[in-house]
Amino acid sequence: MSTLVNSVISKATEAPTKYTAKDFGSDQDVRWCPGCGDYSILAQVQRVLPDLNIPKEKIVFISGIGCSSRFPYYMSTYGFHSIHGRATAIASGLKIARPDLSVWVATGDGDGLSIGGNHMIHILRRNVDVNILMFNNQIYGLTKGQYSPTSEMGKITKSTPFGSVDMPFNPASLALGSGGTFVARSLDRDPKHMQSIIRRAAEHKGTSFVEIYQNCNVFNDGAFFEFTEKESKPESVVFLEHGKPLVFGKENDKGIKLDGFSPVVVSLKDGSHSIDDLLVHNEKDSTLAFILANMTYNPDLPRPVGIFLATDRPRYEVEMEKQIDSAISKRGKGSLEKLLNSGDTWVIQ
Length: 349
Hints:
By secondary structure, the protein is α/β, with parallel strands linked by helices. The protein has helices at about 5-15, 40-50, 85-95, 110-115, 115-125, 170-175, 190-205, 225-230, 235, 285-295, 315-330, 335-340; strands at about 60-65, 80, 100-110, 130-135, 180-185, 210-215, 235-240, 245-250, 255-260, 260-265, 305-310.
């Protein structure tokens, strides 16, 4: 046997080397608009994947249509740029057929919640072990600035010149209402936080849904600046951390307290309340997750960012595999040829 062949075999059987972020970058030029928030999301995913210790050939990124859906081209993994809104359906089929793979979906608020909305709710209720990254820029970017399912009421766009009269989806509430077992939110301009959320999503067994506020600097610039900029962020964002009270403010002098089931802002510096009075986050509590998610569009409350819910529930692909194994043990492996030739058959001359 040649030295070259021996060398190839030897390398194939060696333990996989430790990956770096560069190992997950493809040879394709990244073609998003300069300044687009998608660059940050791509970078954070590439930085997290080496920590997961998953062989590259076991990782797949699937997308639909939209700016976010260029994602598979820029990842040095397997990938599938599918059709509009169907990424979650294709990802479900792949995970069921190949449960050994780490399957990811890159989608946008238009692709995932408009034409793909039906598929989205069903992958969440089934709890297929797929990681969904939903880039939310509150606009249709690829088709040049029409309003999307997350655009605010009154939004003036090319398709709503007099202002949108649609009530927007709250992606976190939608995911929770669909039975999601891992629901989180992060920000394109907070790399460390995004990395921590992506890492937790990857570790979760079941469908993980991560909404990422992503700036479209061409068609919806500044949509989330209140929550991402250094000057305004401390007063407008409250970070959710399991087991910790909800404190925010430039001087950490404000908090969230429950008045019945309604969250309210209280001061920690006027002597009326202490940190012991505050709501303590519990990411295992689905009722609390809904309360926090519904803070999203309340102008009197800070925007919650972090993990709303992380719970365990049986996974679809695992239960299906059990069902198949049970049927085989009771009835045998079966024969496709016998099945096709059973019952009423016709011979066509």
